[in-house]
Amino acid sequence: MEDENKTKEQLINELKELRNSEERYRALYEESPSMYFTVDTGGRVLSINNFGAKQLGYSVEELVGQPIFKVIYEDDKKVIHQEITVCLQSAGCIAVEELRKVRKDGTILWVKEVARSIPVAGGSMIILIVCEDITDRKRMEEELRRAHDELEARIQERTAELIKSNRDLQAEIEEHRRAEEALRESEKRYRYLVETTFEGIWTIDPDGKTSYANQRAAEMLGYAVHEMLGMQPLDFVFPDDIPLAKQGLELQKERPREEFDFRLRHRNGSEVWVHAINVPIFDEQGEYLGALAMFTDITERKRAEEQLRESEKRYRNLIELTTDIIYLSDREGRQVFVNDAGYSLLEATPEEVIGYTWEKWIYPDDREKTYKKFREMIEHGTDLFGFENRFVSKSGRIIYLLHNARLLRDEKGNISGTQGIARDISERKRTEEERERWVAELARSNAELEQFAYIASHDLQEPLRMVSGFIQLLAKRYRDRLDKNANEFIDFIVDGTTRMQRMIEDLLAYSRVGTRGKPFEPTDCEAVFNQAVTNLKVTIEQNNATVTHDPLPAVMADSTQMVQLFQNLISNGIKYRREEPPRIHVFAQRKENEWIFSVRDNGIGIAPEFFKHLFQIFQREHPAKEYPGTGIGLAVCKRIVERHGGRIWAESEAGKGSTFYFTIPLR
User: What is d(CA 383, CA 377) in angstroms, rounded to the nearest whole number?
Assistant: First the structure.
């Protein structure tokens, strides 16, 4: 009888120890913010923690006995099938995957899943699955806290049942042995879950020394697990956060649960930011047994937050230093933010601007235009737009502004306001107005000069023809009746009037370039070249010249003026020849948005000092006796090219020929 009592007492003690162990591991299990499954070899759920079931929108009863594929996203079912197959091939096999699960309401939950196969009694095998919710860790922790409370109630209920059942220990000893085995299996599973969780787990004893640390906690701090045992928690706290940690340790017995961010010190001295959950542990009699802490490494998040703060500081400095108005308006157009430059430009205070629309500051004549622009922008959903309008400062000064604005939208895509930058372009506007005035004045002056040149050259021809006619008549009747000097004087007069008439005709042609030009139309430059060569046929034959060309493009141009342009440049190449026969070659190439034409000759070339006068009217490099002409031909070429929106220039070396270039824009 005495031995039997001892056996009963021994069994009761062992059961208490197992219960305490189960309570500790269940506390660890329920505090961990992860989902836990056990799955049999057929892929059916044997158990799932309450947190996991709630995360998926089910109850435990709805999932236990169901295929695990019920909560797996369709595209990921192949992955989980492969994971189960691999895990069942050998005990202790670990598989890690990131995949999607489907809640009961159809929404998607992303998780990081660790699966491991373990043998159980009877030679069978089950798969333990640990899932970390990587969609919303905060929500998972909240669910985990609620699951902990439920588990506490169930543990207390189970403990009461065990105490009651122990009254008849002898009759139920076999049942207790089975319970003992089940507790060992449960402890084994919970220990594995604690060792494979993604959080660091740390416990201290009543004396404040480390009594347990999982592998994740040791890895975070750069230690081996055995090195941490027996050390004080403050040994791992970053120096600047020791006061906060001391306060937490002093008050932990009074607080059932506490969450906070602080820094731990890595073995190499660097800081490790963690989010910690601290829970005190008491036995059934309320005696303090120590504390459990779970912490998550948030170092990267803290660094990102610091970088964000620095970035915000830099951008705020830029906003306040810029001379542009930077503003933020709500959906109704009321100002929410305006930088200092805006107040300075408007000569206003924040109280006069914030909470109001821009209406009182917009120049009256520009209000309707501005409102229309914003209405169109909102109706068409234009996210980025620009426009100009005028504001009036507090003192009445008119300010021209160039706005670049952007629509702001909320998470649902609805317009929530406007963000804009407005630059003061008043000085530019005044400059543009002044320039337009001068351009108009210059155009008027040029028109008057062209009209004057045309009238002058036209009206001069009649008296010049009369003088020329009478001089020729005088020469015919009296050449041999007067002395030798008179004959020479008559020749001078005839030659002078002839050259004067040619100059007037060329001047008339020069004035007509801008006033008598035809509208631009598609013009085949091959046909233009052929016409110019036909016009110069006699000159080409007399000088034994060779005129060639590469394929030429079609352009938008005045075909008559293009013939004149080609003819003048080819004629120049023939006129300013050397002893050898002239050779002129015309070619063109496209570059970006224009055609570049080239007319190359083998003539006498151009002296460097004459380049600056090359395209000026009546400017000649050589005497008229050597090379006849009026000095207007290249000036006419320049006017034709400029009328077409192009440029003209030349490259040459004295004695080695010249190349004239001109451009015609693509239209």
Answer: 8
